[in-house]
DNA sequence: CCGTAACGCGTATGTCATACGCAGAAGGGG
DNA sequence: CCCCTTCTGCGTATGACATACGCGTTACGG
């Protein structure tokens, strides 16, 4: 229906075109004074310094020494800038050492998950960018690919590999969001992380009714809430469960019929 | 430090105060012409009809037959309205039939996850509300409590129960976000869900380089992408993995030493 | 060497959340 | 019984913000 052949083939969503560097740089007009890279880098800097909310077209333009509207010569909309920021800040994956050393899929997938988590923690504002559908940018694909490769020796069906990758990836993101929220609370009030969790525990103790919430009450009394200072605890715990679950699937698949 | 005793005890974050119905209705001024409930209900209606983005203070006020600013007599800020909307739309959990019938923790937790998912699917806009830290509203606590109760017979430590609940809950949410994004894409362009996934597959085929992305290429060739029409597939798959992982943990805990 | 396409950007528009203050309503204390 | 305090609804104003539009300018291709 709306088929419009330009240079390559079909109608890529402008932002993808930009992310893949497929923008046709015309040889006609004046020299561009800016570049996509500079703009995206400036936006990333702003986000890192003052959070995603501080990333406005005006602010980025100012940071880059141009006027607000000139940015629209490089970026079709703010959402596109978001996509590019994500792509730049996340970056491509490092090679997995577990794959090179010939370790099993479990080590490889764990390393993959940790690497992903590290990137998110380095740029917590990434988590504030609303997810816009399935991955289609270069780095997203590269990470996806690496996740599949981590499962290469597992004997899983192709579709299952992707499902597992998706599952783990979503887990990493969820856990990181939790951390980001905690970090936000820490910044919002000017206190220490411990104080935030302590304050949360106090709030809970006030709101929880032992009759209506016996389980949570038991949790509060058990003191399990106060001790674990380890910020990696929930991540490690969840990942371990997830990997166990994948292992169970692999065992099931292994022993069963080799499906076409 | 900033301790200010008002009516009850400490300084609850205004929105929580409202969610728990602890607003001190003063007996002094004129009769309020509106009510929190009416406002929240109107906001929920708007979100259900036109999406969360359509929920502006002006629009809600109009819907309720009042002026924009009058809403601020009931709600301290828009974020508070969000919290209340979430609370209202999510609602309290139904009793778990698996618990009443004496089924095991696995059935109970699966039922719990499905119930949660159903609520999210009924109000996809819920997923667009940024998560604001750990749960502290009545319904959030009730769901949390029910999750813990589902794990009652498991023999897990209190802390582990909560970690599992968090893990499953985050999974449900992640998966729902995926569905919401797909639904959004379906609405944005005017096409059918199948057409959206087909278009995605076409885009991938164009972008994926078989040399650089052998795993994804294999996935695309395997045709695994085209067949599974079942919208519940990823949910069921992920939940099964997760439950298997929890089962492994329970077996480990069961057989091992009963830690303090 | 000129037409044309791309550039930088000023201006304008429309949408929001929300601060501020006023005028009217309604209890409660004298 | 009345007035004063307190709360109500709400008009107005402010300040961000994204972004459409169009103008003057630049520089390459014919």
Automatic annotation (TrEMBL), chains A, B:
Protein name in the entry: TetR family transcriptional regulator
Key word Transmembrane present: no
Keywords: DNA-binding, Transcription, Transcription regulation
Signal peptide: none
Coiled-coil region(s): none
Domain HTH tetR-type per the UniProt entry, residue ranges: 33-93
Database matches in Gene3D superfamilies: Homeodomain-like (1.10.10.60), Tetracycline Repressor, domain 2 (1.10.357.10)
Source species: Streptomyces rubiginosohelvolus
Pfam family, one: TetR_C_1
Lineage: Bacteria, Bacillati, Actinomycetota, Actinomycetes, Kitasatosporales
DNA-binding region in chain numbering: 56-75
């Amino acid at each position: 229906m709306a088929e419009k052949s330009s240079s390559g083939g079909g109608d890529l969503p402008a932002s993808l075109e930009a992310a893949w560097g497929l923008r046709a740089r015309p040889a006609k007009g004046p020299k561009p004074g800016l570049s996509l890279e500079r703009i995206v880098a400036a936006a990333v800097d702003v986000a890192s310094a003052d959070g995603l909310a501080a990333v406005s077209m005006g602010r980025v333009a100012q940071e880059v020494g141009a006027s607000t509207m000139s940015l629209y010569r490089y970026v079709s909309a703010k959402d596109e800038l978001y996509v590019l920021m994500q792509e730049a800040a996340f970056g491509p994956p490092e090679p997995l050492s577990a794959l090179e050393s010939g370790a099993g899929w479990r080590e490889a997938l764990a390393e993959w998950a940790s690497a992903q988590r590290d990137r998110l923690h380095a740029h917590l504002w990434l988590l504030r960018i609303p997810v816009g559908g399935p991955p289609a940018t270069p780095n997203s694909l590269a990470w996806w690919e690496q996740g599949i490769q981590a499962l290469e020796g597992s004997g899983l069906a192709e579709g299952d590999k992707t499902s597992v990758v998706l599952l783990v990836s979503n887990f990493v993101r969820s856990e990181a969001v939790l951390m980001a929220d905690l970090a936000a609370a820490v910044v919002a009030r000017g206190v220490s992380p411990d104080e935030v969790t302590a304050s949360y525990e106090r709030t809970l103790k006030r709101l929880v009714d032992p009759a209506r919430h016996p389980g949570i009450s038991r949790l509060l009394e058990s003191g399990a809430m106060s001790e674990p200072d380890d910020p990696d605890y929930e991540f490690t715990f969840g990942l371990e469960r997830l990997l166990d679950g994948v292992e169970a699937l692999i065992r099931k698949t292994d022993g069963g019929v080799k499906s076409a």
